[in-house]
Amino acid sequence: MAAVAEAFDRDLEGDFARIEKLIGAARADGVQLLALPEAALGGYLAHLDGGADQPPALRLDGPEIARLVELAGDMVVCAGFCEADGERRFNSVVCVGGGRILGRHRKVHQPLRENASYDSGDEFAAFDTPVGRLGLLICYDKAFPESARSLALDGAEIIVCVSAWPGSRTDAPADLADDRWTRRFDLFDRARALENQVVWVSANQSGTFGSLRFVCSAKVVDPGGDVLATTGTAPGMAVADVAVTEALTTARRSMGHLRDRRPDAYPKLAPAII
């Protein structure tokens, strides 16, 4: 499996050219699951408080997603886009493979003034894919433990989190490796993988867009919270070979974080799952 740190913008043809190249490189490496960043189709927001420069709104059943399906072929590919649903717009990620759409997630948690541009999603649901049962998150969703836990309780073995996660906007260091928001991005990735004992695949934008400078740091994390591959604070593709079922069985053999939950002790947080 592989996670990408790459720059995407308003030029959809340019975005698709990059995606085609990335899929080709991943296929040459034997990758079966490829995670592209949030807003890979059309770029992220230039201004968090709205404004005229908005991402193109694409329908789930439109020609752009059909093109992504065709490019993916038998590979499972996840990519972020601005989804049009009537007059509403959502910050979404789609998962495609085998000639069809496998799943879709609409970002639930909206940071700062992102809600000036998008409506909010309202659910977390896992779904079956050729590489295992998979859940999707977008960027700020991963700051909330309930997001990933909901997917894990729904049987997700792999969680793909696509992001347009920027570095600090105040007191920003010259080196992104020293940025506090890079550190937080990495901590969330490792913590969410470990506490749910799932395989975690984290993609992110790179470069700059508008006033934002993205931290890259695409990675694959195993169910023990160990980083198997990362791009660091540079563009690239983090590739790791993971036997998913074996990795989950090994991690959960003695201390099963999902199995050993006590929902009766914290009923206000989550009901018991039967």
Automatic annotation (TrEMBL):
CDD domains: nitrilase. InterPro entries: Aliph_Amidase/BUP (IPR050345), C-N_Hydrolase (IPR003010), C-N_Hydrolase_sf (IPR036526). Residues 1-244 form the CN hydrolase domain. Keywords: Hydrolase. The keyword Cytoplasm does not apply. Transmembrane segments: none annotated. PROSITE patterns: CN_HYDROLASE. GO terms for molecular function: hydrolase activity, acting on carbon-nitrogen (but not peptide) bonds, in linear amides. The keyword Acetylation does not apply. This is CN hydrolase domain-containing protein. It comes from Actinoplanes friuliensis DSM 7358.
